[in-house]
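Review box. Two proteins, two foldings.
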Amino acid sequence: MTGVLVLSGDPTEDNHAATKKYVDEAKAAVNASLADKQDTVEFDSDYNSITNKAATVATVTGAISELEFSDSAAANQFVTSVSETAGVVSVTRAQPTTANIKGLTEALAAKVESSALAAIAKSGEVKDLQQTDDTILVFNCGNSTTNF
């Protein structure tokens, strides 16, 4: 066969010939639908930034849920450190000890034994106040102090 072959229209069956115009329009439609798509996808079911750039909704949702962290106060504990690894926050706590509270060791060492305190120092009540021959009572009378 020589010369130009003219087709009567677009193909309607699998084995029908197609015109150049029909093929060009189909190609343009496919290219338009792929314009915003990723060029290649090698999907192995898990996201991997090196070998697989695709991720399912479940993979993304799972990764986000792994980053979620909630924390609440723990009874009789205090936070000793807060750290972050791969987007996950960790909180470390400890029980308070004498060594954890600044100055407590010294304050406890300087504490006076209860037996050495006067009754008023233990109760805080004036009725427990006792004066002996060698003691001075000091009363605060507003703007002046009177010694008895």
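Next protein.
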Amino acid sequence: MTAGLYLFTNRYQSYIVKGRSMEPTLSSGTRMLVRNLSRPTWADIERGDIVTYLREESDEATTLGRVVAGPGDSVEIAKGILRVNGAEVSEPYRKPVASEAPESEMRLRDNVQPLVVPPESVYILGDNREESSDARVWGPTPLSRVTGKHVLTWYSPGGAGR
């Protein structure tokens, strides 16, 4: 029993969502189980996975986001529309924008020039693009900075969850 508990607690961890960057999928206060990834590779992660990761400037602040592209993928965002390898990505999980702003008022981060995700890196975005500071600001994330992968949501104040 003790060995099983030890293995479970070293392999998984509870995570409490803070902030609105992953709404409507995960709202602030949501509690979820994350599988720890000590040396992740692209084989451990798929497009669409929700992951925890460390930003380059901090080894302590864990951030949460959705992987939308992997190593070698071409990524572009034009007028808020995500394209990976030239194909528009369906994002049913994405929080709808209240109203589409005229092109002259669109923010810079609603448009990302085409880029190729470097080897051993992933492109991570928040589901709530209006509230998320993500790859549009920080660029691709090295896989070595990915710390965990969402397994399940066990409590959600708003009843949402993946």
